[in-house]
Amino acid sequence: NKNQSLQFLCQQTHDNVKRAAESILAGKVVGFPTETVYGLGANAFNEEAVRSIFKAKGRPNDNPLIVHVSSTHMLNKYFSQQLPWTYERLIKEFWPGPLTILIKSPTDLPGETTAHLDTVGVRMPSHPVARALIECSGVPLAAPSANSSGRPSTTSAVHVFEDVYQRTEAREVMNYILDGGRSDIGLESTVVDGLSDVGKVRVLRPGGVTIEALKKVVGDDNVLYDKTQTKGEDFKPTTPGMKYKHYSPTAKVVLIMSRGGDKEDKTERLQELIRSLGTDTKIGCMTLQDSCITKGLLKINERTDQLIPYFVGPSSQPSVVASNIFAGLHALDKEAVEYILVEGVDEAEEGLAIMNRLCKAAGNAESIVMI
Ligand code: TXA
Ligand code: MG
Known about the structure:
Elements: E1 7-9, H1 14-25, E2 29-32, E3 39-43, H2 47-57, E4 66-68, H3 72-79, H4 85-94, E5 99-104, H5 111-114, E6 119-123, H6 128-137, E7 141-142, H7 157-163, H8 168-173, E8 174-178, E9 190-193, E10 201-205, H9 211-218, E11 223-224, E12 252-257, H10 267-277, E13 283-288, H11 292-304, E14 307-313, H12 318-334, E15 339-343, H13 351-361, E16 368-370
Parallel strand pairs: 1-8, 2-8, 4-6, 5-9, 10-11, 12-15, 12-16, 13-14, 13-15
Antiparallel strand pairs: 2-3, 3-7, 4-7, 5-6, 9-10
Helix pairs in contact: 1-6, 10-11
The structure holds threonylcarbamoyladenylate (TXA) and magnesium ion.
Residues 144-145, 153 line the site of magnesium ion (MG).
């Protein structure tokens, strides 16, 4: 039995966390829940253990990991340094939570963890199981999202099992997945660089903490975000992760954007799109439950019965939509659909991070259709 060596540790008992922590200290990789997405954790200061994370995911080794701490005491113990005022405020407001800050990498942190950069991304997660695991291990945990490289991130223990543990390389280095239920936020942390420009914070990856929220804390003019950094061909990546294929399920993702006329009947244009994908093709539809695109698709499906709907939430609640995006991609992939039509959202609040992930899942401009 190929799953023999894996254990799901379901109850969040001290005993289970302790066993997982012992596994971490033995140099293994542990799947664990955070409030953003699940992570694949190992001792950030153990070079060999960190190499195992890259193996388990099939991740290119020039893409650095985020290091997780359970307290400011741990931050000071392992990453002691003077922080800019912007970080002081952000930490006070958003930690524990979905915010990663780039700080100077200490000399004893292995180059494997940082991909040999002189900075390291650090965050303090709020999920109680994540905090307990780090605390019990007594060391900061390097952890990327728990998905095989290029695939959508995972927001449940079962998805970690299905997506990562099926890899031989993962089975060699992992004995435990801690199950802490579904991730509340459902999208990764916001990554910010507050070191490069004095008094400013640059958003390298939009995520769980919105730009609006960052601005409230450090001032409107002090938050920089260059949306084009994630698009175009010859941009210089500021975050190494940006240059790789990302968030792609097995099915081909087609992002559909409503070109205004919110009340308009879009059935005909949708019908045309679906015909172009094939009349016998099984198609997953990840849409807002209250949109005219949903209405159109349901109408079409009464006739063709080729669509599998998955509702991500109402347009008025972007945080709910955010929490269902990765779960939806995994669920529809499991239905073995050939395409996944995904409805785009407004780029306000969590919408910005949602669209960042969806555009990448659709291969940027390649598969975006205006309806
Ligand atoms: O919410 C999250 O951040 C999750 C959970 C598990 O904490 N983790 C996560 O890790 O999303 P990962 O490895 O999938 O994404 C980390 C991102 C990558 O895009 C990486 O390039 C960027 O952070 N990053 C890490 N260290 C960096 C650094 N020193 N400079 C620039 N970008 C960095
Ligand atoms: Mg990731």
